[in-house]
Design a protein that fits this description.
With about 450 residues, the protein is mainly beta. It is built from two helices and 27 strands. It has a domain of about 150 residues. The radius of gyration is 21 Å and the shape is globular. The relative contact order is 0.18. This is DUF839 domain-containing protein.
Length: about 450
C-alpha cells in the first residue's frame, strides 16, 4: 500500500478510528480514501485572522492562554520557550489541567525557571509547566511542574493520570555544562508536582526518548527511541516491579527490554503492508543506564536487535500497541526508504504487523515532513500537527480518510505582534471535548480553540 502525503494522514485516521471505535484495522485499511483539497471538507475553509495569529474555520475562535517570555502567573519567571508535547487532565468543578513540555536545549532563550524541589539539574533548560483553567477556559494558575531536564519532547499519560515527560537526548554530565546525566523519563503530577518532584526513572532507560504508551491492564510501558544517527533507535518495553501501582510506583524499578524481530535487523526493509511476524522476542537491555555504551549499541547476542529510523508516536488501543516510524532514508544509513510506517504489536500473541507503509515512489514533496503529535478528535478521526517547512497546519482527518485544515499559523509576517510561526505541537482536547488545546513550538504559544465541534 502506497500513499500520497495527504493519504499518510488518511492512514493515520484509520489507525485512530480503529483504536477509538472498532479495533478492527483490517476492515478500516481495506481501502484508503484519497484526501480532498484542504478547506473543502471538515469545518469549511479557513478564514484569515485579522490579528495575524491563527486562521480557523467560520464559527471557531481562539484564545491565547500563554506566550513564551511573558511572566508565569506563579511569579517564578518567564514562560519558557519551545512548547511541545502536552496533555489535558480533568479537574474538580469543571477545571482542566494542562501539562506542557518545553523542548529546550542549552541555547533556549527562556529556560524553565529553577524551582526548589522541582529541579533535576540546574544546568538543564527544559522541563514542564502546568496550567489550571476554569470552566470558561480562563487561566487560573501557571507554574513550573518540573525543571532542570533537557529536550523534553513527547511523553504519555499514565492510567493514574500523571504525565511521563521524556528527554530526547543522551548527553552526559560535563556535556553542555550539565551537572547530571540526561536521557531519562520523569513523572509529573498535573496539580501537585511536588508529589513527583524531579526524580528520574533510570530503570526505564537512558536514551533519546520520544513517546510512551501504557498497557492499562498489565502496566507494561512501551517506549520509542528517536535516535539521530545510525544505528537508529529501538522499540522497548518496561516491565515495572509495581505495575499499575499509582503515582510514584515506577520508581520501584523493573526490567527494560528491546524488541527483536527474528531475521529483521532494520524495520525499513519491510515494504509491504500486512507483513506479519510471529514469535516476537524481547531481550533484556544489558545496561539500561548506558554507563559506557548507548543502549542501541549494546550487545544483544547472536540474534542482534531490530532498529528503525525516526521511531516517534506510540499509542495503546484495543489491547495492542501501535508505534510509528516517521520516515527512513538510505542516505542517512537506513537499509531502505519510506515516508512512514505504522506498526501494531499484539502482546497476547507476540505478533508484529506492518499496518501501512508509505513509499518513496509517491508525491511527497518534502521528504521527512511527517505528522507529529496526534490526538483523537471529538467527532471521530484525528487532529494532526503538521511538522515541516512552509505553512504550518493543524489538520483534521475524518473517519472516511478525508483530510481538512482546522488551523493555520500565519507565515512571513515577522512582527512582534504576529511573528512567523514554527510547527504546531501538543494537540489535545479538554476532557469534555469542547476545547482543543494546541501549542506553537516557536515562538512558544498555547492556544485554546472553541467552536461548533458537533458539526
Amino acid at each position: 500500500m502506497s500513499a500520497t502525503r495527504r493519504q499518510v494522514l488518511a492512514g493515520a485516521s484509520a489507525l485512530g478510528a480503529g483504536i477509538a471505535f472498532t479495533g478492527a484495522l483490517s476492515e478500516l485499511f481495506a481501502g484508503t480514501a484519497a484526501a480532498h483539497d484542504l478547506g473543502r471538507t471538515g469545518y469549511g475553509p479557513l478564514v484569515p485572522d485579522p490579528h495575524g495569529l491563527l486562521d480557523l474555520p467560520k464559527g471557531f475562535r481562539y484564545t491565547v492562554l500563554s506566550r513564551e517570555g511573558d511572566r508565569l502567573r506563579s511569579g517564578e519567571g518567564p514562560v519558557p520557550s519551545h512548547h511541545d508535547g502536552m496533555a489535558a487532565f480533568a479537574g474538580r468543578g469543571g477545571r482542566t489541567h494542562l501539562v506542557r513540555n518545553h523542548e529546550n536545549r542549552v541555547t533556549a532563550e527562556f529556560p524553565v525557571p529553577v524551582v526548589s524541589g522541582l529541579t533535576y539539574d540546574p544546568a538543564g533548560k527544559g522541563g514542564c509547566t502546568a496550567l489550571t483553567l476554569d470552566r470558561g477556559r480562563r487561566v487560573l494558575s501557571e507554574r513550573v511542574a518540573i525543571a532542570g531536564t533537557a529536550v523534553n519532547c513527547a511523553g504519555g499519560h499514565t492510567p493514574w493520570d500523571t504525565w511521563l515527560t521524556c528527554e530526547e537526548t543522551e548527553d552526559r554530565a560535563g556535556t553542555n555544562g550539565y551537572t547530571k546525566d540526561h536521557g531519562f523519563v520523569f513523572e509529573v503530577h498535573p496539580t501537585d508536582p511536588h508529589r513527583t518532584g524531579a526524580v528520574p526513572l533510570p530503570a526505564m532507560g537512558r536514551f533519546q526518548h520520544e513517546a510512551i504508551a501504557v498497557d492499562p491492564r498489565h502496566g507494561v510501558v512501551y517506549e520509542t527511541e528517536d535516535a539521530f544517527e545510525k544505528p537508529f533507535g529501538l522499540f522497548y518495553r518496561f516491565l515495572p516491579d509495581k505495575p499499575l501501582g499509582g503515582v510514584g510506583s515506577l520508581r520501584a524499578g523493573g526490567r527494560l527490554q528491546a524488541m527483536r524481530v527474528p531475521g529483521v535487523r532494520d524495520l525499513s526493509t519491510i515494504q509491504e503492508a500486512g507483513a506479519r511476524f510471529d514469535g516476537i522476542e524481547w531481550v533484556d537491555v544489558p545496561d539500561p543506564l548506558a554507563a559506557t555504551t548507548p543502549t542501541r549499541f549494546q550487545d544483544y547476542g547472536a540474534g542482534g536487535i531490530t532498529h528503525a529510523q525516526k521511531l516517534e508516536g506510540c499509542y495503546w488501543g484495543a489491547g495492542r500497541v501501535y508505534f510509528v516510524s516517521s520516515f527512513a532514508r538510505s542516505a542517512d544509513g537506513s537499509a531502505a526508504d519510506h515516508y512512514g510506517q505504522i506498526w501494531r504489536y499484539e502482546p497476547a500473541s507476540r505478533r508484529l504487523t506492518l499496518v501501512v507503509v508509505f513509499g518513496p515512489d509517491t508525491d511527497v514533496q518534502l521528504p521527512g515532513e511527517s505528522p507529529d503529535n496526534i490526538c483523537l478528535a471529538p467527532g471521530g478521526g484525528l487532529m494532526v500537527c503538521e511538522d515541516g517547512n512552509g505553512a504550518q497546519h493543524v489538520l483534521g482527518v475524518n473517519r472516511t480518510g478525508e483530510v481538512y485544515a482546522l488551523a493555520r499559523g500565519r507565515q512571513n509576517i515577522g512582527t512582534e505582534q504576529a511573528p512567523e510561526w514554527g510547527e504546531f505541537a501538543g494537540v489535545t482536547f479538554a476532557p469534555d471535548r469542547r476545547t482543543m488545546f494546541v501549542n506553537c513550538y516557536t515562538p512558544g504559544t498555547t492556544f485554546a480553540v472553541t467552536g461548533p465541534w458537533h458539526r
